[in-house]
Structures are given as C-alpha cells and as structure tokens.
Amino acid sequence: MSEKKSLNIGLVGYGFMGRTHSNAYKRVSDFFPDLGHRPVLKAVCGRTEDRTKAFAEQWRYESYETDWRELLKRDDIDAIDICTPNDQHAKVAIAAAEAGKMVLCEKPLARTAEESTPMVDAVEKAGVPNTVWYNYRRVPAVTLAKQIVDSGKLGQIFHYRANFLQDWTISADLPQGGEGLWRLDAAAAGSGVTGDLLAHCIDTAIWLNGSIADVSAVTETFIKERVHTATGEKQKVTIDDACIFHCHFANGSLGLFESTRYARGHKALYTLEINGADASIRWNLHDLNRLEFFDHSDDSTTRGWRSVHITDGDMPYMDKWWVPGLCIGYEHTFVHHVADFLASLDSSEPCAPTFRDALETAQVCDAVLASAKERSWKDV
Amino acid sequence: MSEKKSLNIGLVGYGFMGRTHSNAYKRVSDFFPDLGHRPVLKAVCGRTEDRTKAFAEQWRYESYETDWRELLKRDDIDAIDICTPNDQHAKVAIAAAEAGKMVLCEKPLARTAEESTPMVDAVEKAGVPNTVWYNYRRVPAVTLAKQIVDSGKLGQIFHYRANFLQDWTISADLPQGGEGLWRLDAAAAGSGVTGDLLAHCIDTAIWLNGSIADVSAVTETFIKERVHTATGEKQKVTIDDACIFHCHFANGSLGLFESTRYARGHKALYTLEINGADASIRWNLHDLNRLEFFDHSDDSTTRGWRSVHITDGDMPYMDKWWVPGLCIGYEHTFVHHVADFLASLDSSEPCAPTFRDALETAQVCDAVLASAKERSWKDV
Amino acid sequence: MSEKKSLNIGLVGYGFMGRTHSNAYKRVSDFFPDLGHRPVLKAVCGRTEDRTKAFAEQWRYESYETDWRELLKRDDIDAIDICTPNDQHAKVAIAAAEAGKMVLCEKPLARTAEESTPMVDAVEKAGVPNTVWYNYRRVPAVTLAKQIVDSGKLGQIFHYRANFLQDWTISADLPQGGEGLWRLDAAAAGSGVTGDLLAHCIDTAIWLNGSIADVSAVTETFIKERVHTATGEKQKVTIDDACIFHCHFANGSLGLFESTRYARGHKALYTLEINGADASIRWNLHDLNRLEFFDHSDDSTTRGWRSVHITDGDMPYMDKWWVPGLCIGYEHTFVHHVADFLASLDSSEPCAPTFRDALETAQVCDAVLASAKERSWKDV
Amino acid sequence: MSEKKSLNIGLVGYGFMGRTHSNAYKRVSDFFPDLGHRPVLKAVCGRTEDRTKAFAEQWRYESYETDWRELLKRDDIDAIDICTPNDQHAKVAIAAAEAGKMVLCEKPLARTAEESTPMVDAVEKAGVPNTVWYNYRRVPAVTLAKQIVDSGKLGQIFHYRANFLQDWTISADLPQGGEGLWRLDAAAAGSGVTGDLLAHCIDTAIWLNGSIADVSAVTETFIKERVHTATGEKQKVTIDDACIFHCHFANGSLGLFESTRYARGHKALYTLEINGADASIRWNLHDLNRLEFFDHSDDSTTRGWRSVHITDGDMPYMDKWWVPGLCIGYEHTFVHHVADFLASLDSSEPCAPTFRDALETAQVCDAVLASAKERSWKDV
C-alpha cells in the first residue's frame, strides 16, 4: 500500500444518487487499498440549506455549499460529481470542465444528444478526466459477461435482448415533479423510462455487442394526467411510461428492448440476454450475484444453463470482497466505478463510459423517441 | 359412464403431429370417461405406402389410404384430421367440409389469411364441427391463466409479452425442404418462425387479451442459403429465421412478441407474461406444470411471485390425471383438445379455436410479415 | 417392427396404481414399437363387482374377476400385476409365482422384510420374471443420473441426501383406513411414510450409491388419533407421519433421508442430491424433466449448477417421445418400466428392481423403523 | 439527527472477521443516522506488528497494539471486539469484562460450553453490554422470517430443517492450522463444521423455533491426515468435516441439520425451512435477498411458494438502504448488528444474541458432538 494522494470531491445533489456516490467514495479505499488516490468528501452542494447541511453531517462532508458555482471556484475541490436532476447536468458539467475540474456525471448524460454534445466538447477541450455513472457495467456478473463476449466464446451473435421492468408508478394518485418525483416530469428528466431505464440497457448493450444501427420503437403513457407537485394542479404527463424497440446492431444481430414502470410484480428487474452461435449469457438485477451461462460445447446430455454464483475471488472485483458464496449488493457497483476511476487517474487512461461513450447512448435514446413519435424506423 | 358412440377418425399425415394426435385419440376415453363419443382410429392416409402402412400398424389404425381423396369418399370416416405440411391444409380441409366431414386442422390454418379464408367459408357453409390444434391453450396452467384473466383479478392490462425461442437451425449444414424439414421451406410452410411459432403465441394472446390492432415488425434470415433436399442444391432460404414485433391490443395494452430458431440454449421455450394493474401472470413451456402469479393485494412484506404447481384436482383438466405434485407433459394438451372437441359434439357448441378464430391469427401473421417487409406499422 | 406376441395381463386392484399401470400397458407399443411383446389387458380383479366392472369398461379390459384366485387359474393370463394394499402383496405374489405366472408387484414389496422374503423365494423358485414398480428409477433424469454415476464422473462420493415431502395429512379431520386411505392404517400399509415414500428414496439410493450399512432414525406421529373409516370411531394412529434417518453407505459416504406428510407447501416433492469429489447431481419430482448437474472441471469463472432439460433424443427413453423442450410427465415412468420389462422378456435378463432387489429396500426400512423405536443405530 | 457520542472500538484480530466488523463500524452512521453513538475505530490489535499496522492503515484505525492486554488498559477504548481464533475468545472476553469494557465476540462463543460458561459469568458479573456475532439473524429476510413466526401465521410447527453446505476442503492437498486455516485445526477451532457452520444454523433455529431438547448425530472426517502448517508434517485431522443431526425441539417439532465442507457445488449455502400447519418459510444465503413463503390460506388454484424480494422499505432494515429491487449483500448483516448494538446502548436493553443466548448454542453443539462420538441420543 503506497502513500495515497487525496482526491477532493465536490458533490452536487444529495438525493438517491448522492447517497450511492458518497458511500462509494467512503468505502473504496478500505477494499481497494492499492490505488494511488483516496477520495475525500470535501463538500456537498444543494439548493436547500438545511437539507444540504444535514446531509453533510450525516455523511461527514467537510463542508457544504448552496450554489454550485461557488463549488467550482474552490481550489480544494478536484472533482465535481453531478447528481442533480437531468436538466441541470449540462450547465454544471460544462462549467466544471471549464474550471478544470474532473467531472463525474450521473446518467443519462443530459436530456438529449443535442444537450449532451457540448458537454463532451467541454471535457475533451479541457482535457479533464470524465466518466458517466452507468453503474451496471460494474456488476461483477456483467463485467464477467463482457470478458466472455470478448473471449469470443459466444461465436457469431444473433440476438441481444434486455428489459427493465418496474411497477412503482401504476397508481394514478402519484403526483409528478418535485423532489423524488422529478423523473416523472419530462421538463426535468428529458424523458420517462427511455432516459431513466432503457439508457442503462443501451449502455450495456453497446458495451457488450457494439453499436446500434437503426431502431423501431413504440412508447405509451398509460396515465395521461397527474397532479404536479409544483403547481398542485393536474397536468398532462409528458414522459413515456413504457417504451419498446427492436433494432439492428452493426454486427448484424437483432436487438429487442423494453422498459416500463407498469409491469406489476417487478421492482427493478433489469434483465439481459445474448445468444451467440456457440454460447449464451443471461443476467438480471434482482439476482445480481448470478450469471447464467449456456455453453453448447458441453456434452449434450449434461448441457444446460449454468447458474454461476459470481462470488469467487477469480471473478471481476470479487477478490476485494468476501469469500465464495457471500453476496454483494447494488451499491458495490458504484464502489467499483470509483475504484476504476481512481485507477484511470493512476494510468492516465480514460474511465469508460466517458462522456463521449455516453453520447452514443443519448443518440440511441433520441432515435428511439423519434421513431416512436413518427411511427417509423430511425437510423442512429 | 354412458354408452359411447364411435367417432371414426381419418388422419391425413403421419409425421410429428400425426403421432401427437393419434396418441390423444387413444388416451382420451381412459381419462375422460364421461364423454359421449369414443374416437376410433379408422384410417391414416399418407403418400408413401410402406411408411403409411408401418404407421398404421404401430398405432393400430384399422386401415390406411395413400390418397386423401379416397379417405373423403369413405362412409366410415366421421372426421378428417389434417397433419400435412401447411400448403396442403386448404385443399384437404375444403374438400373434407364439402364431403360433410368434421375437420380438425393442425395449425396454422394455412400459409396466409388469403388461403385460410375459403377454409373458414367451407366449414361454415357445410356446418361441420371444426377446430384448429392450437394446443397450448390447453396446458392446464394456460387454461388457468385464462380463468384468472376472465375473473378480472388482473385489473387493467398494461403489457402482454410472449416469445418462442429455439436453437435447432443454427447449423449452416442443415438442409431445407422435404420430410421433417419442410418447416424450413417457405413454399411448404408459408413462413418461418412467424407461422410455426409466433402463431401459437398470437393465438394464446388473442384468447387471453383480445384482438391485436396494429403491429410493427422486423424479421431476419441469418443463414441465406441452404441445400434443398428436393434438388440437392443450395437455394435461397425464403423463411424468416427470427421475427420480432410490438403491437397495440384493442384494449390499449402494449404487446411484445419474439420468435427465433437462433437462441442458443433454448429448445422450445414458449414464454408468456401479462401485467395488469392488480396482478400479473407468467408461464413457460419448459416448466409447463407451473404457473407464476403475482397478486398485488397480498400483504406487502410477503408479496412475491408465486410458483404454483398446477397439478391439483381443482385445476383445469387435472382431476382427470393423477394426484397433487405429479406432472403431466406436452402430449396431454392434445388429449385435452380431443376431450373438449368430443364435449363440443355433446353440447353442439363450437370447439375453440375454430377455423374462424384461427383466421384472426393468420391475419395478424400476415400483418407482421407485411410490416417487416415494408418497414412500417400495419393495421390488422 | 416385428410381429409381436401378446402378453396377457391380469391386474389385481384398480386404485390409483391400477390406473397408472393400465395406462402404461396401453401406451407402450405405440411408443416402443420394437419390442417382442404387446401387453393385452385381459382381466382386472377387484373385490367389489360393480366398481371392478366399471373399471374394466373404462379401461377396456376384456374381462374381470372378483377373486384373485380365479385369475390365477386362468390359462389366458401370462402376468399378474399386484396393485392391492400392501398387506395383500405377499399372498397374491406367492400364489401367482406358484401358478407359474410372471409377477409385477407395486412397491413396497410387502409390509416388512420378513413378509417379503418368502415372496422372493417364491419367484426365484418358480423361475418367473418378476419386478417391483419403483418407478422413479425410470424418470429419464434419474436414469441419466445413474449413467453419470456409472461413468465415474462424480469421483469419490461423500454425500447422498433425499427427501420426500408432502402435506396432505395435516388436517386432523382426515380419517384413516378404507379405500383411498389405507396408507394411513399400519395394518394395511405396514408403516407410514417409511414404506410409502422413503422406500422410493431408498430404492433409488441403493441403485445410485450402493448398499446402506447402518441407520439412525427418528419417527413421529403428529396426530395421535383419527377416526377409522371401518369402525367410525377414533382409533390410535399407528403409522409414522414423518421419518428422518442418517446412515453410512457401504462406500463410506454419509446418507440423509427425510419424509413427512406434514411439510406444508410440498405436494409430492421427492428430491435427491449426490455430492462427489468431482461433480454433483440434483433432481426433484416437481420438475421431473430437469436434472441439475455441477461439474467441478468446468472453467472456474463460468462453473455453476447446470439446469439440464432432459428432453433431447439422446437422453434416456426420450427418443421415443417428442422433440427437445417438450416435457413428459409422471406416468411415463410406468411406460418405461413396462418397456424395460418387455425388453427383459426378449433378452431373458432380469428387470430391475427384481423382488430380490426390493427385499434390500425392505430390510433398510425395517432397520429404520427399529432404530426409531429403540433410539439406537441399527445395522441393515 | 442528534449529537452523537463516540463509541471507541478496540478490535482484536484482523482476519476475515476483522474486516467485516471494521466495515460495519464505518458504515453504520451513514445509514442509521438516528442512533446515539458513532463507532470510532480507535485501535486494532494483532500479534504480528507489520500486518497489524498495515491493517490499521488500510482501515484507518487511529492506533494499533500487539498485545491485547495493553488494549484493555487503555481508557480510550469502550468496547472490545474479539475476532481471534476460537481458542482465544474466553481469556480475552473475560479479561475485557473484568476491565469494564463492553464485549462483542465472534461466534462461536468459545470451543465448548464448558469454556463458554465463565465468559457468560464474567460479562454478567461486570454488567457490561455484550453480544455474539451470529450475523445471519440480521439478514432482512431472516429477520422477517422471525416476525412471521412471531405473528403466529405458521400455526403449529412440525418441521425445522437447515443445512450449511460448502466444498472448499475437498482437496487433500489443503493443509491445516495457521493463518486462514485454523478452522481446520480442532485445537484452535474446537470442532469443524459443527462450531463453524452448524452453530449458525442452531442459533437461528433456537431464535425462530425455540429450544432443542435432544439430538442424535453423526460426524465424519473424510480426509484423515493433512499437513499442519505449524510443523510442516502430516498430522491426524481432528475436526469433523461433516455433521448431521436430527432432534426434537421443545415445541414438539422435528429438526434436521446438516453441515459439510464436502458438498461439491455449494460455496456457502446456508438453507433453512420451517413447516407449520398453516404456512411455511424457506431461505438460503446464496440468494439472501429473497424469502420464500407459502401460505396455505391462499386460494387453492393460485397457491404456491412466493419468491419475495426483500428489498422494500417496509421490510426489516431496508428503509435504511436503497429502493425496491436493489440488493444488499453479506456485509450488511454486520452493519445491522452494529446498529442494533448501538440501539441497545440507547435503550439499555440487551443486544441478542447475548453471551447467555450463545451459551445455549454451545450446549447444543456439545450434545451433537457427544452424540456422534457415543452413537446415542443426547439431551441438551
């Protein structure tokens, strides 16, 4: 274990993602002791002072701010981590890059590809380390899936399918907008399940199976009006409650994607499956410690889907945790992301997905929404 | 048990479906003793005499024919059961109806809706009992799903998804056409997975969730040329190896369907799921004795997907078989279909799906194939 | 398909097992066409004439008897199949053997090893083909397990565990004795779950893992008194409701067995697992088309329990049925048993388990019950 | 969030358990902000200075010691946490209690009940808060199981079964003794799987189902000799590699327990099941976020085992973590234990399992080992 440099973090936003990121910064050095930097929780920034202060105390941030512009001015901040609603991502990220800060941005990069593009330009022009928190790449089972794909074991890929199913917005009594509910307001979120959930599926898909060439989509808004918390009045719901699309990947395989918040019985069921000529892979978020693997080269009478418990020390990231059979959880994906980000500082390599990587996902999302609107195929 | 009348069966075709139907006729009276008719295996008809004769001996048919027209002339035949390749369905069925025979036809009804329509006209004009062997309606778990849907327990339906995944045609060495492989030849089959597999999914979907209004599809033929067994030469493959479509149901729910023969690791995995506001249902053919059911009205801390083993006597058809916990298999669906057909003779009610019911499935299949070809939405 | 000889069956008893056996005789020639004999349902015998006659009509037996001694006198009967309550097995089997009939006997062979021994002597002295219907050996997944064990793939065996869990006798209102309920009356059944359920587990275990050397058991009767249907009065319950034992196998491995009719939520859950140094196997009756297999020689990062769907043509018995992915059910095990019995007539080899094989299971059951009674280890 | 008092921790031992406990102390205040105390990592103590120092640096302990007696003398230490091999527990715990420190002890309490008894006496005489880290009580699914049992939903309990299956010691090349392997040396560990794994199962069982009255056990040591790391020579293996026992609970139910390190394919598979007259519960450690629940009062046609994903905010501890569907892992059980220990300081209630609670588990373990040795039933 070498002497570590501090990496001073300035966190913007203290909601659900603010918690997951804070936890990751605090745990990474205990479990990844060989990295050159140790994150320090320097400051958290939020608009509401009492809440921001309470968050700082609970998580032991050294200080807090109520204006993110002040945060950017501080010399004791190395990296800005953006956990705001999506409509704030672009301006904070661009200003942070211009201020020479590293930038870590919650996904999706912004509400649209158009809004995302200057963010990419800004970090690349500034030459600052940057990454987008598509955390599911770093579920060990998913990382292992990537290694298996890269090994060529799957052979020619025929099919990629993924869905992300939830059921938390079925009640018509749920309002939209405001704290905790901005994801239901297209002005803040950009879109509904497409940007919130399918963006995860698309990021993983591009990583595992390459670029998406064209898409054909349908979206639906099942509940047309909801009370908006800002106005107290019923307003038209402008997000997509559900989105389905099929597509061609550049490698010739067919893709199938679905997301909804109206799939009764599913809480956060992100499922993916890849079918190759020689082998197939399947995974889901509700059982994240397992990878299912089918190898056609097994003896025919004992060939079946293997349920692999991804907890042994030779599996991705797992030498850092416990012993075989002992599960990790959702938040570990963020610890892994921070660890890889710190490693990227040591190696001066980019930490994927970068802003540029995330732009491609935004472009697919835009094509999906355009396809649904125009009822026609769209090239990405 | 009343005195039974004989129902004399004339089977046309002795392939895979010829076996499943023959078995069903032979078993039904042992397990459903209260029906008014007992099927009698009067004659089987096939083009190749030695094979037809061997089949007749193995299954103990009383006689055989090598020309189906001869079969229609026989007074000792009450019902014609059509198990030929799809391109033969229409002419045999129409002639059988015109000869006043009951007609049981393997699915799909014919290669297209256009070819199917005169079949419907024929049986309706003749007024003969008719049914199409969409056997999966009669998996007890699927029949129970129908009862649950009809009870209203699911509430408003938001999503219906189904897929039928196989992997048996991945090898490029597999030829097309001829015995056992006519399903790979569009001339005989009409289409690939759309008519062979998705037709099953569509039939069940319409039964469970009502009509399909419009569709947007994509198809793919992964292996472009295969040797044709008739010519011994490489010929263009004209079937769809894979087909995906999304759709709107008339009730406002979204549908998602996929079928492929290139999903490595899946043998005959027909899966369906319905998500309602209040409850959801899930089923798959590899575990056909189970129904998964999620009831949102359960206590929140013990609410989960129930894995229901559909083997108790109060479940559909199961009072006829064994005791709780003891599985039935694939072929029982055909026994149930025969039992229901016999019951329909007793009651003079139609036995669903009738030719007319199956025409709707053909219309959806046609819209799917047209949508894929023209890359646009198609109304059904 | 060769010319077949008739094998004339005389069935004694028409209860649950009478149905499963009758079905097996009727189906076997359709699916196993190459055997030298075709079973013919010659006669069924039962004490109550109207029920026996109704059974004969439903299953199309050519005749019926109300005294099994009459059956033995008939020259047109080749084989006696015993499906009576357990207390009748010995006398019928011994007389049948003495009459020179082949004998097929439902399990367990008799109520005790002492009662079973003269049965073994009788069939061996008479030199008649004989077998005991421990049908679970012939679930294709279990037969495959045997092939895997015999291949040596498992390496040294450390553990064998099996249980058979039911919940159908939990209600205190259930009476004992009489038709359908003789299994709850020790006078008729010999014991409770030990002879009814654990006997199955023991038969499979000896087949897969060799002899059992010694046992240590506990039994329990949760409901002490039940109305007896014969007397209409409350009587002491003399069967074991639950039985657990551990044991040493002759090969040095440890065994663990449990059976109960008080495991709420389990219908007929027979589960077995074998752990060897190199590989393990797991199976259960509720999902009988699957075998779970763990192979330690797989690559460490993709090693897991394989869920193998035992439906392909290269799996035991499955070339006789349908196509990959299509399930068979409980009753197919009896068809397989008949097929193997018929094959044994062709080859003049014994059809396992023979009466002698089944005697060993009876001896283990006796040791188990003695151990429980005396609260001490018992050698077998 | 109130002003928090510091709780200064002195950790003895820095092995696997040292890591899990350290992590728990560091995370608890972030996720359980309302507790009156905040753990402070004051000192870690180990015999090897360089390793102890490295551990202190990695985990940011303020100081370290190489003699635990020194630790007890320090006024700035409030609580001693014992993570040493089992043979060291008693002397450290007794001295710590005598020094007026709170004591948290890794399980099992000591090697035997005899060795454990003075530990109980010491903490009770000193009146110091004490607890034993039987962490699996605090898997949310297991805690929920306890709530369900306490609610009476299960009705009369008939069966309790649990096993803990591993496969990590199958290789004969594995040595015994020394760091990381002291669990294979009876001198240090007391016993093999009985104290290491079954002790967990027994603790949970007593908690859920009450006291165990008597036991009948068998143990096995499959590999008789292994190289000892201390001497470099082959020595007799004195631990139990496997242990099976059945028992009566005081409430009249039957218990069945098994543990082994020779169950190929299982990493750390702790499974438990309770069968009551009205409902049943099942859980396993490999899928720790799920609880399976069977409720016999459900409608009969849709009754099945519910797979409940224990991640919603109304489930035990889960309001502190993420959102529905997002998993937690193994180490969270220790965070929960610390949180409950801190809460017990606020309330001045004991934090179960106390030393006294853990003594009962030790007594059962002793009876199990005596029963196996003497091949007879033993009262607890």
A few lines on this structure:
With 380 residues, chain A is of the alpha/beta class.
Strand content of chain A: 25-35%
The number of helical runs of chain A is 10
Can you give the helix content of chain A as a percent range? 25-40%
Helix-strand sequence of chain A: EHEHEHEHEHEHEHHEEEEEEEEEHHE
Largest interface: A-D, 41 and 41 residues
Strand order of the largest sheet of chain A: 16-15-14-13-7-12-11-8-17
The end-to-end span of chain A amounts to 46 Å
Low-confidence residue ranges of chain A:
none
By secondary-structure content and strand pairing, the structural class of chain A works out as alpha/beta
Mean pLDDT of chain A: 97
Q: What is the chains' assembly state?
A: homotetramer
Outline the biggest β-sheet of chain A: 9 strands, mixed
Rg over CA atoms of chain A: 21 Å
Tertiary shape of chain A? globular
Number of strands of chain A: 17
Q: How does this structure look, described?
A:
The structure is a homotetramer of 380-residue chains. Chain A is built from ten helices and 17 strands. By secondary structure, chain A is of the alpha/beta class. In chain A, the strands form three sheets. A nine-stranded mixed beta sheet of chain A has the order 16-15-14-13-7-12-11-8-17. Chain A has a six-stranded parallel beta sheet with strand order 3-2-1-4-5-6, sandwiched between helices. In chain A, helix 1 (16-31) crosses helix 9, helix 4 packs parallel to helix 5 and helix 5 (113-126) packs antiparallel against helix 10. Chain A is globular. The model of chain A has no long low-confidence stretch (mean pLDDT 97). The C-D interface holds C 158-159, 161, 167, 170, 216, 218, 220, 222, 242, 244-246, 248, 252, 254, 256, 258, 260, 262-265, 275-280, 294, 296, 305, 375-377 and D 158-159, 161, 167, 170, 216, 218, 220, 222, 242, 244-246, 248, 254, 256, 258, 260, 262-265, 275-280, 294, 296, 305, 375-377.
